[in-house]
Amino acid sequence: MVAYTFQKLSNELIYIRWEKTPSDKEREAFLTDMQRTLDEAEGNIYIISDLRKGRISDLQVLRQLVQILLRSDKYSGGCSFSSDSKTKAIAGVFAKIAGTQNVRDKDCETAEEALAFLESLKEGITKDIDWENVLQ
Known about the structure:
The chain is α/β, with parallel strands linked by helices and 136 residues long. It has helices at 24-40, 59-71, 85-98, 111-121, 131-134, and strands at residues 4-8, 13-18, 45-50, 75-81, 105-108. The longest helix has 17 residues, at 24-40. The two termini are 16 Å apart. The relative contact order is 0.17.
């Protein structure tokens, strides 16, 4: 089983599903995949991360991820969602690394809350997507 999958839901929206906590190699591959996704994007990119089953917990990797996202002129914002207390604590660490001035990212408890946040960033970004199927 792979640790994560990237799913392009539209030209602007990427859904990342974590299936398990990644190994060292999978964490490095994820950072490479994230950088490639942003580099190859034709326009602005928004990201929603499903952390219900897995997450990155390595602080060095979280720092690298923050750098990749916040240095990219194509990254327009994103959110994650999970009700797991460990995941919420890690998301809090991510937020601290990103800094208090970062209003483009949010940790949410539910998918519905995450979708509402994305809509607050860009109206219509979550429309015309079969979320019931995506979130299965």
